[in-house]
UniProtKB/TrEMBL annotation:
RNA-binding is among the record's keywords: no
Name used for this protein in its record: Protein-lysine methyltransferase METTL21C
Keywords: Methyltransferase, S-adenosyl-L-methionine, Transferase
GO biological process: methylation
InterPro entries, per the entry: Methyltransf_16, SAM-dependent_MTases_sf
Length: 213
């Protein structure tokens, strides 16, 4: 099947405060307020997160997250994890230690008063301590979510190793990314060598591709 061509819907109203930007989104019938910080890449909502959130909301029959175990790597501000939680998943949102405070704040703020599976926020440094922190005998995920985790950085081999580690038989990886650099396409080529990979959707205006592996 050829990928569908979509636009990222402008379904948020930006509000600006002096210290943080707070963005207001609406997904799956809920208003989500995301606090951003300009001090770290991971504390900003990137286009891939908007694309995947929109796709999960619109394709619940194809990707039914209700009562599924979902891991998000590089969760950043937590938008995708919050949407997955609203859609009924058991969510574990992970990122680097310096991002966790803002990530925890956003997830708690947007899920605390809902009758949902309580999401978990955990540290995950790609390629480090995986078997110690997430032993295979205990942790198995139905879905692994990743958005804009590939850009011009030095941890791409560790990222791929982390994806391989968590993707067991039956696990579906959904990866949305803005393609900017040749390194992005090189990573995609490596991913295709390891996984059975298809492009589900493309968002040409923002150069985002959404892939299933």
């Amino acid at each position: 099947d050829s990928p569908v061509t979509l636009k990222i819907l402008q379904n948020w109203v930006p509000r600006v405060s002096h210290y943080f930007d707070k963005e207001h989104y609406t997904y799956a019938g809920h208003q989500i307020v995301i606090q951003e910080s300009i001090e770290h890449f991971g504390a900003v909502v990137w286009p891939g997160a908007l694309a995947l959130s929109q796709y999960l909301e619109s394709n619940q029959e194809q990707f039914n997250l209700k009562d599924k175990k979902v891991l998000e790597i590089g969760a950043g501000t937590g938008l995708v994890s919050i949407v997955a939680c609203i859609l009924g998943a058991y969510v574990t949102a992970t990122d680097l230690p310096e991002v966790l405070e803002n990530l925890s704040y956003n997830i708690s703020r947007n899920t605390q008063n809902m009758n949902l599976h309580k999401p978990e926020v955990r540290k995950l440094v790609w390629g480090e301590g995986l078997n110690e922190d997430f032993p295979v005998s205990t942790y198995h995920y139905d879905f692994m979510l990743a958005t804009d985790v590939v850009y011009h950085h030095t941890a791409l081999d560790s990222l791929l190793a982390t994806m391989v580690y968590f993707c067991k038989p039956g696990t579906v990886l959904l990866w949305a990314n803005k393609f900017r650099f040749t390194t992005d396409y090189e990573f995609l080529e490596k991913l295709c060598n390891v996984f059975n990979t298809t492009i589900l959707a493309e968002f040409p205006e923002s150069n985002v591709k959404l892939l299933k592996a």
